[in-house]
Amino acid sequence: MDASAARTLTSQIADDLGWLEEHCRQNPDQAAQAGQLRLAAALVRDCIGPFLDDQPTTPLHVVVVGGAGAGKSTVANLLSGATAAETNPQAGFTRHPIAYTSDNGTLSWTGHLGFLGPLQRLPQPGPANLDADVYQVRHVPPDETSLHLLKDYVIWDCPDMTTWAAGGYVSRLLEISGLADVVVYVASDERYNDEMPTQFLKLLLESGKPVVVCLVKMKEGDAPALVNHFQREVLSRLPLPVVACLTIPFLSPPELADPARRAPRYRIPLLNQVAVIGRPAKAARFRTIQGATNYLATHHDNLLGSARSDVAALQTWRAVVEAGKLEFDARYQREYLYGEKLARFDDALVRLIDLLDLPGVGKFVSGTLWVMRWPYQTVKNLAIKALKRPDTIAMPELPVLEQSLAGWLDLLRKEAARRGGSHPLWAHIERGFASGLADQARDQFQQGFRGFQLGQADEVERTARAIYEELEKSPVALNTLRGGKFALDVAAITATLVAGPLLWWQHALLIPLAASISHQLVELLGRGYVEGQRELARQRQQALMMQHLSAPLAEWLIHWPATGGSAYERLQLTLRRLPVAIQQLHAAVSQRLASAK
């Protein structure tokens, strides 16, 4: 993947994750999930993006994190060898990230497009308690010891971990955490087992970050017991191990004022742990990139879990729409199709029976048989007319469809009103009905109905014509049927003649009756075939109605919440493309890592 494509891909992923985070923050119960999304976006734009853009390996980034009042700034000073970080007993004094780098260190690492997302760099150093989406870089002169960590590293002092719902502090902290090659986790003797910092520590370990734990602010004699207790109560419950667990007891004012010279017994073990993790720098950076990519690849389902309730609401809406469609289809069939005679098929039956008459000179024979059957046919028709119940007047097709549509929309409106307080999606649909959703649905219906009318007229006519046109196109089959019908007539008449010694007037009655009965049998067979085709035409008309009306309307209603620029439109887009994009990113990183070794 070339550099331009990689930038586009990482920008898209970071943007989608950022949108999901903001969408998630609208629900107070999903604040922790929003934090995970912010870290994932930071991993993409601050870690993976610069790597694919061929940013130099060094400097590595050491990020100091911890709970409120833990002593992060003190640890940052131990790492840098100076008192650059403003220590303050006030919890939450550091409110934006501060980077400490060597006096002669390059700042090329700040130049990547989209670096640190919404955080803007302060042009001049400012107070640590400035509460804004900014970061600052402070240059630190090298200490006089041989342990000058800043020549290869940038040390970050970060805001507190207070609560996942603290959008400002925590978002800034997560942004810098995504950048980290090494994390130094600081916990004080008083608050080493707070729930929020422990959750944050777990998240950092899951994202592949190597973590060094510093337990601070205890009496020196209590340090071993505190380490054992912390390992048992906190570390043993985490999914992955930390690199080391160090202790830094209370420092005296002179030690705090000059940590490089006055506190080497605590500083040196900490620097050694960081240095071991960071050597060689190329391997350390590759490990960071690999960990970030693996986290995205293995946790993308969990990252998309913030939208689980939205997806469930959309699926429920789909189910309600489809239930309404089933009732719409059934009502059309029940109230219209079952009563629709499709009279064109009666004409087709007459045409079919007429086709079976003999052609040419055979017309004289067919005419003679018709005259013989005429009395029977007349009596039969009069009897049928006398005994037949009047046809029920069926409701015209369009009113049936319109009433079915009204019932469908009423179902959806009532369901939206009933569920309006359960999820924002249903509230959105309820507002839609209040602002014209039903009228829009009727417009969609009218558009489909015009196509349905044209289609069904052609379908009925074509099916009815096919009953006799197929015979007309097959002379062999037609003549076979004609011959069979004539043979049946002859057999019936012959059987009457040879039945026994009858008087002439008895023959005069029985011969027409026999001819009529044979004709009736043929007509029954033809009627059965035509009725079968009539029922197939009804089924095709039902399918045609669903094709032009109910199916498109159901699809339109299902997708309505995710159209018109709504949040659910963006949600659908994000859920569809994010997993694919993460797979593409994983493949690009794997290829780049393999070629760089």
Keywords:
alpha/beta, 597 residues, 64% helix, 8-stranded mixed beta sheet, single chain
What does the secondary structure layout of this molecule look like, with pairings?
Elements: H1 3-25, H2 31-52, E1 60-66, H3 72-80, E2 98-102, E3 120-121, E4 134-140, E5 153-157, H4 167-179, E6 182-188, H5 195-206, E7 211-216, H6 223-233, E8 244-248, H7 253-257, H8 259-262, H9 264-277, H10 281-303, H11 308-335, H12 344-355, H13 362-387, H14 397-419, H15 424-434, H16 437-472, H17 475-497, H18 504-559, H19 567-596
Parallel strand pairs: 1-5, 1-6, 2-4, 3-4, 6-7, 7-8
Antiparallel strand pairs: 2-5
Helix pairs in contact: 1-2, 1-19, 2-4, 2-10, 10-19, 11-14, 11-18, 12-16, 12-18, 13-18, 14-15, 16-18, 17-18
Report on the architecture of this protein.
With 597 residues, this protein is of the alpha/beta class. The protein is 64% helix and 7% strand. Strands 3-4-2-5-1-6-7-8 form an 8-stranded mixed sheet, with helices on both faces. The mean pLDDT is 82.
The residue ranges in which pLDDT falls below 50 over 5 or more consecutive positions are: none
Helix content: 55-70%
Question: Based on CA inertia axes, which overall geometry fits?
Answer: rod-shaped
Order of strands across the widest beta sheet? Answer: 3-4-2-5-1-6-7-8
Counting DSSP E segments of at least 2 residues, the number of strands comes to 8
Question: Summary?
Answer:
The chain contains 19 helices and eight strands.
